[in-house]
Model the fold of this input.
Amino acid sequence: MSIARTAKSIMSQSLSHAKIVARRSKDRGHAHHGWLDTYHTFSFANYYDPKFETFGALRVLNEDRVAPKSGFPSHTHRNAEIFSYILSGELTHRDSTMNKGATSTVASKDSFYRIKRGDVQFTTGGSGISHSEHNEHSSEPVHFLQIWALPWKNGLTPRYHDLTVSEQKKRAGFVIIISPLKAGKGASDEQEKAAVPVVEGSIPIHADLVMGASIIANGTSAIWTVGASAVTSKDDRKVYVHLPMAHDGKSKVRLPDGTVLREGDGAFVTTVNEGDPLTIESVGTAEAEVVILDSA
Done:
């Protein structure tokens, strides 16, 4: 047996207790509104399946494509942690926190955040925030993941964060993009304003959840360490693996039990604990951009 195969065998055995269930792209909810082409991993809008409502703190995972010069008009969210991971194109965000004293109107057209490939934006809905998301590019669509998590506490002060993660870092392994607020559930107002995450350089979230991403070259692998040494709940973590539809179907990954995910597929990984190694091998003809959502 080759050294490579021996190493793979050892890593697979170390995760032999894991339960891995694929969520195939074709089985997701899907809607095409002309301006929006969207796939729903969990129940959302007109798509409902009682088997897919939440997974740990994870509530929504939508893979969206928004046409040029269109987007989501102003609407309000409460008591949800909402984040967007941009795969291609650009998205323009406006929200009510940009207008001092405003609570129900979105900021003016001249006040916005514009995020592009490699960027992640994050909003704490808390007690209520109004926002809009538009693709203001003249000709290019925007492709992104829209993700919601359930917070550990309701009525929080609405806040906005964004982060740029370099391609180089993602190609070197999994990068932690989001980690829990270090001060935890009992954070003071000052600690909330300071917004210090457990993992330095990441975005803080009000949940026992970690998000990571990696770009894995074909023929190579990357290892996600469950919990990323950043969580409170150590046992029975719930890890969702998602492979976006980013390379015209050319990306594929293999999980430790042999399950192969194609673009748009995901997998529920359960009965795993903090520190367990989850090895993801890129087996397609193009590199694979993998997103991990790891929660209690």
The first strand starts at residue 19 and ends at 23. The chain has a mean pLDDT of 91. Helices lie at 3-14, 167-172, 189-194. The two ends are 38 Å apart (CA to CA).
